[in-house]
Every structure is written in structure tokens, then in C-alpha cells.
Design a protein that fits this description.
Chain lengths: ~400, ~180
């Protein structure tokens, strides 16, 4: 294992290289570009043996990856924001066909107003597309997820495409030290992709077929089962990963100072860092703060969330999304999970960090103060403060 | 924890300096971690840019903006404004100015990094000399650790001369700190 100093995009590209995809099809878009540029260079130099297709659009990028996966190849693509929305039609083809493609999404705001910076409105808008969604919080985790995503997606009981989400710029363009594993270790962890769900002249079968009202729900039920099977495949894959690479991951969620916590922030992605720092500082001041990070958003870790929030007085989702007229995607999923399990912990929704807005320790202290004061209304961070200034 | 703000103009290499310092820090000690990032988005040559370095003895996961710095470096002295510079400095923080003139503030240090760059690199790229200078101010990075930062971030063709510039910057500030 070699210690390198890399950006999130570069680290992810190293992980993809180690996973040995046979086909990479991509169209560049900020802030995903430096990842696919790195992969193109690896293919050019021979460091990675793969077919690199520089296609003319994101729709084509995923279409080509689906074709490659149907031929039995390990396929990778990457995109962001408007590019992800442009390929939306193809996302459901990939999941419906059970093609375990891996895609990196550099999380970025959606137009209009035009904005290239981070929030999670792009990936969360497609949470219902049948793809597994994991959100990295560091470049090391991004690299490791590049490897684990293929293993989880391709496991026969899962057979579901996998979107690895990296917060745009705050992760994709931030440099940090990363342990890059050796190829031999990666090969031991991730053998070549083998599937029966492919074109095969020896055993011809019908792929990408129609299914009418009589059978359609059976296929959708099968898709749901595959996704739910990932709830087990994730910790199993992480245990195997830890054995080979010596780095352990905590499953679908990561708790921080949850022991004895009275007030908890729920996070997704890189905002976790400042949330943890805020909770730690508040603990030192005698305030029982904690943080629950969702590492996976699909499948949704309902059990883990229920367990973590059962005893707390109140929680708030720091939501880098808004579903206009409602709250945010994360908040809605968290509330549904708690309600389903009969847990009455109040969870509020704070919409923050849209379009790359910084989320500071002061912002998060304000959220904890609101929870302690029993203020639970959905709000946009920064709006009340602006009103107070007037 | 050390938080460093870099002020420069597009093309001067402020972000490269931010990365160099973070890389030298993480290779100096296995327990160290660091984050380095640019002011995100489109950039123009000559326009004011900022870059950020956060150094930690342990884990470093806070990616929020640096609002107040321990060290605030100006690659171009024309960007320096005393009130603004003080505003974004922590108590006890240091301002490092690339300037041939005497320091305008008690908390500021002047070091002519452009002169070092001209002498060693033959061009006015003050970033690597200022990387060395900031490393000396940070502590936790020795003169020999500079090379690891350089080799992690720069192409080998330009590594040697830039290491020399970084060492010159380090020596200039280390001797001043000792005095």
C-alpha cells in the first residue's frame, strides 16, 4: 500500500483502476471531469486495460455502459448534476435489467440558477431510480467505495447498479493523503465479473424484454429484493474488505458520540466533518450532542436509524436538498423509517448548503440550540438570520 | 490544528503552495492529516484567488471554510489590505507578505519570495519559496520534509529547482524565528 496525496476525484480514479473495469464510457462535466481525465490517462498509458469510450452525451455514456454490461463486461461511468438528469431515462434501464454498473456522481446543484457547486439535489432526485447510493466523506472512503461498489453491485443476490456520490469540490477537488492498495490485494478482493445475465451465443436468452400487467410487478418485486439484499451485502463486503486491506467501515450508517446523546444531527456526505467537530465541542461544554451519518441512502438503513434515534430527545437532518412544497428527500425517508417502527423522536429538517453554501460550526450550533428549545419547523439555514438583520 | 489562508493571483500558484504545505505535513508524520483546497470554480489569470490548507495532528475531517487563519500568506502584496487581513486572522496569528518592503503591521512578516524565485527559478513564481517559509512558521515540518511535499505535488522536471526555492524560504523564516 502506498501513501499518496490526491484529490477525491483522483483517489476515486485509482479505485476504479484497481477494480479493472473493461469498459469506461463518460462525458466530462464539472466537477466530475478530473476523475474521467485521470482514467483516460491511465488507459492511454496502459496502466489500465479498458475500452475508454468518449461518447457525445451522458445519455449515451450510460447507454454504452448498459450495452457493455449486457455483454458481460464490468462497466463504469461518471457524471454530475445536469448530466445525471440527462441520463435519468437510462438509470431505470440499468436497474430494471439488473446490470451492476458502477457510476460516480460528483454531487452538484441543479439549474436554474446555473451553479456548479455542491449540494445533493442531483443524486437525491434519482434516489428512486433503483440504484444503490453511497455517499463518501473522504478521499480514502471514495477510493475504497470504488472497489466495494463493484463487489456489492455484482454479488448475484444483489445484481443492482451502484452510484457512488462524492460531494462536488469539497470532496472531488480537495487534496488529502490516501492509501492506495496494491493491485494484487485488489484482485484478491474483486475477481473478474461473471454473470449469466448477458448475451451468450451458446445459451441464448431474451434480455431487455417487455412485461405486461400480469408479470410486471414480479420483476419490480425482484428488483426490490435485490436492493434489500444489499443491506446484508454491505457489511459482509466491508468485513471482507477489512480482512484484505486492514481498513474497517461501520456499515450503512456511522454514529458519532451517540452514546448518551440527547440531540442528534443526521448528515449525508462531507458536512459530517464539521457536524462531528461541532458535536465534540458541544460535548466539552456539557451539551449531549451526537451525529448520525448515513453512508448509504439506498437501500435505506431504517433499522440502524431507528436504533440510533430511539432514545434521543430530538434530531435534525442537515439537508442539502429541498423537495419544494415538502421538506427534503433525506428527512422524508428518515421520518418514514421512524414512523414505521413506532418511534416518536421528533426530526426536523434544516435545508442548508445549497449551491455550495458553506455550513459553519455557528450554523450547526444554531440547529442544536433550536432542537433544545423545541423549535422544529422546517427552515432554510441563513434565511432567519437575514430576516433578523433587517 | 493549523489553518492557513493563501491569497494570490490566478497563475501564481497559490493552490500549489496550499497543496505543497499539506503534503509536506502528512508525509512528515504518520499521525498527521491535512486538507488542501482551492477557491472553487472558474479562474482567470491575474484575478485574485484564494486557497486553503488545514493541518491536524490527528484526524482532519472539517471541510468548512477557513474564516480565521493561523497563517495568512499573500503571494502578491497588492492584494494586502490591513483591516481585511486582521479580520481573518486568529489571535496570535501571523501574516506572511511577499514583499521587499518592511512589514506594515506588527503581526506581519515580510519576505521577498519573488527575489528568491527570480534567483533560483529565473522567473517570478513565489509560491514554492512561500511554501518553505510557511512550513518554517507552522512547525511540525522539518527542512528535510519539504522534499516529500515537492515530489508529491510537482513534476520531476521542475522538482529540483523548486525544492531549492522552498529550502531558501524555509531557511529565511526559520532563522528569523530563531532570532
Amino acid at each position: 500500500m502506498a501513501k499518496r496525496f490526491l484529490s477525491g476525484n483522483e483517489a476515486f480514479a485509482e479505485g476504479v483502476r484497481l477494480a479493472r473495469p473493461q469498459v469506461i464510457s463518460a462525458y466530462p462535466i464539472t466537477p466530475q471531469t478530473t476523475c474521467v481525465e485521470a482514467l483516460a490517462s491511465m488507459v492511454e498509458s496502459g496502466a489500465l486495460e479498458a475500452e475508454y469510450l468518449h461518447v457525445e452525451s451522458e445519455h449515451s455514456a450510460l447507454s454504452a455502459a448498459i450495452g457493455a454490461s449486457m455483454a458481460g463486461a464490468r462497466a463504469f461511468t461518471a457524471t454530475s448534476s445536469q448530466g445525471l438528469l440527462y441520463m435519468a431515462e437510462c438509470l431505470v434501464y440499468a436497474s430494471g435489467g439488473l446490470y451492476p454498473i458502477v457510476m460516480m456522481n460528483a454531487c452538484r446543484s441543479t439549474a436554474l440558477p446555473w451553479n456548479i457547486y455542491c449540494d445533493q439535489r442531483d443524486s437525491l432526485l434519482l434516489a428512486d431510480s433503483g440504484w444503490i447510493q453511497a455517499y463518501a466523506a473522504s478521499a480514502q472512503e471514495a477510493l475504497d467505495l470504488a472497489l466495494m461498489s463493484f463487489a456489492i453491485a455484482e454479488s448475484p443476490e444483489v445484481a443492482t447498479p451502484f452510484m457512488v456520490c462524492l460531494d462536488g469540490f469539497t470532496l472531488t477537488h480537495t487534496y488529502e493523503s490516501v492509501e492506495v492498495p496494491e493491485s494484487a490485494q485488489a484482485d484478491a478482493f474483486l475477481p473478474p465479473y461473471k454473470t449469466e445475465n448477458r448475451f451468450d451465443f451458446e445459451n441464448p436468452k431474451n434480455l431487455a424484454f417487455s412485461a405486461g400487467p400480469e408479470t410486471n410487478y414480479l420483476f419490480k418485486h425482484q428488483e426490490q429484493q435485490g436492493m434489500l439484499n444489499a443491506l446484508k451485502a454491505v457489511p459482509q463486503t466491508e468485513a471482507r474488505f477489512a480482512q484484505i486491506f486492514g481498513r474497517a467501515y461501520p456499515g450503512l450508517t456511522e454514529g458519532y458520540l451517540l452514546e448518551g446523546a440527547e440531540y442528534v444531527l443526521i448528515t449525508l456526505g462531507t458536512v459530517t466533518g464539521i457536524a462531528q467537530k461541532t458535536a465534540s465541542d458541544l460535548r466539552a461544554e456539557g451539551f449531549a450532542a451526537g451525529v448520525l451519518r448515513l453512508r448509504y441512502f439506498r437501500p435505506f438503513p431504517s433499522q440502524e436509524i431507528a436504533k440510533a434515534l430511539r432514545q434521543v430527545k430530538a434530531a435534525a437532518v442537515i439537508e442539502r436538498d429541498v423537495s419544494f412544497g415538502a421538506t427534503g428527500a433525506v428527512h422524508q425517508s428518515v421520518c418514514a423509517a421512524l414512523q414505521q417502527q413506532g418511534i416518536t423522536t421528533r426530526v426536523s429538517c434544516v435545508i442548508a448548503g445549497l449551491g455550495g453554501a458553506d455550513i459553519s460550526e455557528d450554523d450547526l450550533r444554531g440547529v442544536f440550540a433550536d432542537l433544545a428549545a423545541g423549535r422544529h419547523e422546517t427552515r432554510f439555514a441563513g434565511i432567519r438570520e437575514r430576516r433578523d438583520e433587517r | 490544528m493549523h489553518e492557513i489562508l493563501w491569497h494570490g493571483r490566478g497563475g501564481q500558484g497559490a493552490f500549489t503552495a496550499a497543496k505543497l504545505l499539506a503534503a509536506a505535513w502528512v508525509f512528515a508524520d504518520d499521525g498527521h492529516s491535512a486538507l488542501a483546497w482551492p477557491s472553487f470554480g472558474p479562474e482567470r489569470r491575474g484575478a485574485p484567488v484564494r486557497a486553503f490548507t488545514r493541518l491536524a495532528e490527528g484526524r482532519c475531517s472539517d471541510r468548512s471554510e477557513i474564516r480565521k487563519a493561523d497563517i495568512s500568506v499573500y503571494l502578491d502584496a497588492t492584494l494586502f489590505d490591513a483591516d481585511k487581513a486582521r479580520e481573518e486572522l486568529k489571535a496570535g496569528g501571523i501574516i506572511l507578505l511577499n514583499s521587499s518592503e518592511a512589514s506594515p503591521l506588527p503581526e506581519a512578516l515580510s519576505y521577498d519570495a519573488s527575489k528568491t524565485a527570480q534567483a533560483i527559478l529565473g522567473r517570478n513564481f513565489p509560491n514554492t519559496a512561500l511554501f518553505g517559509a510557511a512550513a518554517a512558521l507552522t512547525g511540525g515540518i522539518s527542512r528535510t520534509d519539504l522534499a516529500a511535499g515537492i515530489s508529491a505535488c510537482l513534476k520531476s522536471a521542475i522538482a529540483k529547482a523548486n525544492l531549492e526555492a522552498a529550502q531558501a524560504g524555509f531557511d529565511a523564516l526559520a532563522s528569523r524565528e530563531a532570532a
